[in-house]
């Protein structure tokens, strides 16, 4: 059996899903998205009063990451920009960025494509 090639997160290109609304505020930004997946339909059936539209608040760093997820930069390039913009150590930036990107991907907020 052939193994799939291991993917390197730093080489992936993230972009926001089109169903998102992104609103900048003075303290960061708001992300709004509609629950419309198969599991979301089941959740809404079990919990009919669960909100269909979710809102997430982002700080300045999260806002900058979302702005950079435009489908033209790799995660590594986003990390380099974040390191310069916020004056963080390199290992700290990539650890936090990988965790945040993973959360965004699992939450259905971004899609990742190979370079």
Q: Supply the number of helical segments.
A: 4
Low-confidence stretches: none
Order of helices and strands: EEEHEHHHE
Per CATH, the class reads Mainly Alpha
CATH level-two architecture: Orthogonal Bundle
Determine the N-to-C terminus distance: 26 Å
Number of domains: 1
Largest sheet: 3 strands, antiparallel
Number of strands: 5
Shape: globular
Strand content: 15-25%
Helix proportion = 40-55%
Structural class: alpha+beta
Query: At the third CATH level, what is the topology name?
Result: Arc Repressor Mutant, subunit A
- What's the overall average pLDDT, rounded? 87
Radius of gyration: 16 Å
Strand order of the largest sheet: 2-3-4
Lay out the secondary structure.
Layout: E1 12-16, E2 21-25, E3 28-34, H1 38-46, E4 53-58, H2 60-68, H3 75-86, H4 90-106, E5 110-114
Helix pairs in contact: 3-4
Would you kindly provide a written description of the structure presented here, covering whatever features stand out?
The protein is α+β, with helices and mostly antiparallel strands and 115 residues long. The protein has one domain: Arc Repressor Mutant, subunit A. The chain contains 4 helices and 5 strands. It has a 3-stranded antiparallel sheet with strand order 2-3-4. A two-stranded antiparallel ribbon has the order 1-5. A hairpin with a 2-residue loop joins strand 2 and strand 3. Helix 3 packs across helix 4. The two termini are 26 Å apart.
């Amino acid at each position: 059996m052939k193994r799939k090639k291991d993917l390197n997160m730093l080489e992936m290109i993230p972009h926001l899903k089109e169903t998102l609304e992104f609103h900048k505020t003075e303290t960061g930004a708001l992300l709004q998205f509609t629950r419309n997946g198969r599991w979301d339909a089941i959740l809404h059936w079990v919990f009919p009063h669960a909100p269909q539209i979710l809102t997430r608040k982002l700080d300045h760093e999260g806002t900058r990451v979302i702005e950079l997820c435009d489908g033209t930069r790799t995660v590594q390039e986003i990390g380099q920009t974040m390191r310069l913009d916020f004056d963080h150590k390199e290992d700290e930036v990539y650890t936090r960025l990988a965790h945040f990107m993973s959360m965004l991907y699992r939450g259905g907020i971004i899609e990742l494509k190979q370079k």
